[in-house]
């Protein structure tokens, strides 16, 4: 297994191991190549010289290995995460969703209200800041095992593991509160946002795309009911009933 150098402690350990290997090899070669009357008197100076040569070389190699690991980690993160917001991409979301355990989940589709108008009024820099803060808020109010992904534009999808419909609705209400109460600072300006949320249950073995479609339908009902609210999918002809987010 390749040696992974991730931290400063790993660099020190790698340097020590390289130095010890070179020191041992130096001693073995000295005993094999020199007669005993020459090998013993030069043992200490030879060992000191071996360590003086090996330690800097080991340290340089360790630094390069750590740089390679850091670059690989950044590339891996960039491959699976949206560059602007830092949450998962759509492709990464589906890859992670395939590994969901056999437990019920809740799917939430979240969308920033009037985002095009926000961009047109305040500029794309402010829009990017809004997207970053919105994604940070969503991820910061979910657990480590939950999934948060940007599906495109201002639309995000969340999967809450081991969560029932009522708890998922309560979490969506809380997210709506947090968005409403979190100003966005662009220079000296303090701007506000609201968001709408659609919630649907996902059962083990079910189709994730179907659950997302149900949550998306609930989201559109929330939009059509006045925005800044949560709407849950319910089986039946009505599909979803709007619920005003707690203010």
Automatic annotation (TrEMBL):
Regions crossing the membrane? 12-32, 38-62
**Record PROSITE patterns:** GGDEF
Q: Which UniProt keywords apply?
A: Membrane, Nucleotidyltransferase, Transferase, Transmembrane, Transmembrane helix
Q: What is its EC number?
A: 2.7.7.65
Q: Which GO terms describe its molecular function?
A: diguanylate cyclase activity
Q: Please give the CDD domains that the UniProt record associates with this protein.
A: GGDEF (cd01949)
Q: Which residues form the GGDEF domain?
A: 103-235
Q: Which InterPro entries match?
A: Diguanylate_Cyclase (IPR050469), GGDEF_dom (IPR000160), Nucleotide_cyclase (IPR029787), Rev_trsase/Diguanyl_cyclase (IPR043128)
**Coiled-coil stretches:** none
> What's the protein here called?
diguanylate cyclase
Instruction: Give the organism the record lists.
Output: Roseovarius tolerans
Q: What is the lineage of its organism?
A: Bacteria, Pseudomonadati, Pseudomonadota, Alphaproteobacteria, Rhodobacterales
């Amino acid at each position: 297994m390749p040696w992974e150098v991730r931290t400063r402690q790993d660099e020190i350990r790698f340097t020590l191991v390289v130095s010890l290997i070179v020191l041992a090899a130096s001693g073995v070669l000295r005993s094999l190549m020199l007669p005993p009357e020459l090998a013993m008197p030069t043992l200490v100076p030879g060992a000191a010289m071996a360590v003086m040569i090996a330690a800097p070389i080991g340290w340089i190699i360790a630094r390069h290995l750590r740089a390679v690991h850091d670059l690989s980690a950044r590339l891996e993160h960039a491959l699976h995460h949206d560059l602007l917001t830092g949450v998962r991409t759509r492709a990464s979301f589906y890859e992670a969703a395939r590994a969901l355990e056999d437990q019920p989940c809740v799917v939430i589709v979240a969308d920033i209200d009037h985002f095009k108008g926000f961009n047109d009024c305040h500029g794309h820099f402010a829009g990017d800041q809004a997207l970053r803060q919105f994604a940070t808020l969503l991820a910061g109010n979910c657990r480590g095992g939950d999934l948060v992904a940007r599906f495109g534009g201002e639309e995000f999808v969340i999967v809450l593991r081991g969560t029932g419909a009522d708890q998922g609705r309560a979490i969506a209400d809380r997210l709506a509160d947090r968005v409403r109460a979190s100003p966005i600072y662009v220079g000296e300006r303090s701007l506000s946002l609201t968001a709408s949320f659609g919630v649907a249950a996902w059962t083990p073995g079910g189709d994730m795309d179907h659950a997302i479609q149900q949550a998306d339908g609930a989201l559109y009902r929330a939009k059509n009911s006045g925005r800044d609210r949560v709407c849950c999918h319910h089986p039946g002809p009505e599909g979803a009933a709007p619920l005003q987010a707690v203010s």
